[in-house]
Every structure is written in C-alpha cells, then in structure tokens.
Amino acid sequence: MLNINSVEIDSGENAPLSVYVHWPYCARICPYCDFNVYKNKPDSDLTASIIADLKAWRELTGPRKIQSLHFGGGTPSLMRAHDIAHIIETVGHVWHYCDTPEIALEANPADAHKARWTEFKQAGINRLSLGVQSFNDTALKLLGRDHNADAARKALALCAETFEAFSLDLIYGWSGQDTALLHSDIETALRYNPPHISAYQLTIEDNTAFGRALGRGDNRAVNADESANFFETVAAQLTQAGYNHYEISNFAKSGFESRHNLGYWEGQDYVGVGPGAHGRYTQNYIRHATICESNPALYSQRVKEQGIGLKDIQALSRTERSDEYLIMGLRISKGISLARYEQLGGTLNQAAMAYLIQDGFLQIRDNHLQASAKGRLVLNHLTQQLLT
Predict the structure, then answer these.
(1) pTM exceeds cut of 0.70
(2) Pick from 132, 223, 121: which is nearest to 177 by CA?
(3) Is residue 350 within 8 Å of residue 325, measured between CB atoms?
(4) How far is CA 112 from the centre of its chain?
(5) Which three-class secondary structure string do you get for 114-177?
(6) pLDDT in tens, 81-103
(7) Please, what are the domains in the chain?
C-alpha cells in the first residue's frame, strides 16, 4: 500500500519535468558501487514494464513539458537501441518534449562500437556520458573496471566523433594515486576536448566490496587530506582549461551543463522509473518523494499488478522540502535563491550563516546563498550548521 500524506507547499506543477530511467544491469559490478545494480541477464519484461510505468505517471504529474530524459544505471549502454527508441517515443506521447530536450545515456567504454552508438544516436540520444574513470591501467584494475586504458581512449575518441554533447567520468582518490597520476588523467581527457567532465572522489560505502575490504583494514582510497588536495587540483586544472566549475563534481564548457542533473540540484520535479529509481513530483501544491520497487522481477510484477512501479510515495513537509533545496542547491555554483528558500518555509541559522560568511565559507550574491571554493571542501558541515 502506498503511503500518501498531505502537506501543502509551493507548487511546481507547471515547471518543466525531467524523466530518469534506471537500467539496473551491468556486465560487471564495480567494487565501489552502491547503486541498485545486478549482473546482466536477458530481461524481456523490463522495457515493457518501464513503458507501462511511464504511462501510469501521467495521472500523477498531469501534462508537462519534458526538458530532459536520462538513461542511467547500471549500464544502459547494454540496452537495445530499439528499446531505447521505444522509451523515448513513449515519453513524447505521455507528455511533450521541449523544443530542444536533452536525451542522455550513460555508457561503458567496453560497449563502444561505432554501429551501436550510431544506432543510439538515431534512436534519439543526443548526449552520451562515458564512464572512463581513469586512463591508468593500474587504477582501472583496482576499480574493477572491465576496460583498459587503451579501450578508454578509443571509446572517448568514438564518443567525440559521434556526439556533439558528451561527458566523461573520472574517479580520483584511489589508493596509490599521486598528483602526477591525477594530472596525467586530466591531460589525457582534455586531448579529446570533451564539453563536460565529471570528476568524483572515491568514497568507500558500507555495502560494497570496498566497504568490506575496509572492514578488514584494507583501505582502497587515499586519506581525507589527500583527497581534498586532489579536489583542488582537479578544480584548478579544469577551470584553467576553460571549464565552468558549476557543481562540486562537474565541469562544463558554456552551454554543455547537464540540464538533467541541474534539475535535481535546483529542486525541480523529475519522474523516476525502473527498478529502484527515485523521483520527485508536485501535485495539488504538494511535493512528493517516490521510490520504485528495487528488484527487477518484483518491479515488473508490481507494474503488472498495480499499474505503476512505485513502492512508496511520501509527501514532504515544508521543512523537508526546504532542507532538500538547501542541501542540493549549495552543490551548484549559483547556490540557492534565498527568496525561494523563504517561500518554501525554510529557516536558516542566522548566526551560523553570518559566521560562515565572515570566515569565507559562504557568500551572498544577487540574493543567492553560495558556497565559496573553500566552503565546497566542507559542504556537509556547512549545511549542518545552517540547519541547526
């Protein structure tokens, strides 16, 4: 039974909507990954279930314009191109696309084949996000990746050849990495002139192979001080190369920011379908958080029996809504609108905010509260202080 409570908040029902499709299968599960993923297997039911789920969502969201559609996972580059095309078409039928929607797919270098990626483009994909992680074979082996450095370079070259908008992921902070190796990864990436780069700090999550290794005393990540130094190195090198550091882990050339991810960080509505997918939507002035059934077979069964894949819907209180806006919004360079935060019913610790501004961790520009470069290093601490 879905748990639905009613708490009135500011409406976002007429704003553009994003759609996230979670494809949970991977050829290999990385030891640092704590996403909802499963070893790849044939699953003829899943695409049909996702399509049925999308159709059911129209009743919850009403008629909306779609600004972005993102295929994530897992490894959605394992999907068949005609299934991707079917989902893209379904989203257009259920809602309506904006004039130039962002339709993105996450891809693994091991799946880089010219014919396959051309099919993805013909299906409607106009942005590819490539999980390179590193161009160093030692690092790739440590990270449990199923490609080597040469495959990463070839995949990135094919990406640049096929798509105007593309992004690559890098991971830094793995055990054994030093500044020279980090510089090398960034310099290699820049040779392909990617419009967007995501650089993620390796974090050890409990329910992962790396988490279990840490429990045995084997830490696969560098210490916090080294990781902070690496973060500053990445930011300095990429901004010097002409990238806008528009979010803590994300860098883009002008006009190539991820519209889909900005929707999350700016507190916009998004539909989440597929096993374990999360979502946010506003209906009758109420903002709701949703989550789908996580197991693929149970997800498909729930869609068949209930008509929709949702396992739970929770209405967000005004405090939960405003807290989420602050926590997500301070991740991006423009920060949060103080007027909107107040409209959502949020209350900041004014003494803590004044202290953090005076100490150079926060700043206010154009009535937006922003984390400084210094503040981004301790963002969790900032939000805790502001909300205390």
Answers:
(1) yes
(2) 223
(3) no
(4) 21
(5) HHHHHHHHHHCCCEEEEEEECCCHHHHHHCCCCCCHHHHHHHHHHHHHHCCEEEEEEEECECCC
(6) 999 999 999 999 999 999 999 99
(7) 17-264 (3.20.20.70), 318-388 (1.10.10.920)
